[in-house]
Amino acid sequence: MGLLAILLALTPMAAPPTDLLLEGGQVYVSAGSAPRAVSVLVRDGKILFVGDAAAARGRARSPERVDLAGAFV
Questions:
Q1: 50-73 pLDDT per residue, tens
Q2: Which domain holds residue 38?
Q3: Predicted local distance difference test score (pLDDT) of residue 5
Q4: Phi/psi of residue 5, each to 5°?
Q5: pTM here?
Q6: Residue 73 forms part of a structural domain
Q7: Residue 3 counted as domain residue
Q8: What is the C-alpha to C-alpha distance for residues 54 and 72, in angstroms, rounded to an integer?
Q9: N or C: where does the chain have the smaller number of CB atoms within 10 Å of the terminal CB?
Q10: What are the residue ranges of helices labelled H in 1-73?
């Protein structure tokens, strides 16, 4: 029983997926469209949401936030 407890303690736990929230950028959403200031939410390497900051924050799970400071995406 003690050996099992030690083995379980040494087993690495999988980290929960981290969301990446890109805010304050100029994002092109389609070819030929004018850029607009929106947020982009990325989860597991895939774009999950593009839209306004409040909606993106509502969908995010403990995101790492990056201020794009007007940069183009």
A1: 888 899 999 998 899 999 898 887
A2: 16-67
A3: 60
A4: -65, -40
A5: 0.69
A6: no
A7: no
A8: 20
A9: N
A10: 2-10, 53-59
Confidence (pLDDT) at 73: 78
- 19-44 pLDDT, tens digit per residue, is 999 999 888 777 777 767 689 999 98
Specify if 35 maps to a domain: yes
Cα separation of the two ends of the chain: 54
Q: Is residue 6 part of a domain?
A: no
Which amino acid, one-letter code, is at 41? Answer: L
Nearest CA to 39 out of 26, 64, 63 is that of 26
- Own/partner long-range contacts of 7-14 (Cβ < 8 Å, ≥24 apart): none
Residue with tokens 């805010």: 23
Total number of domains in the chain:
1
CB distance 40 to 49 below 8 Å: yes
How many residues appear in the chain? 73
Extract long-range pairs of 36-45: CB within 8 Å, 24+ residues apart.
37/70, 40/73, 43/17, 43/19, 44/17
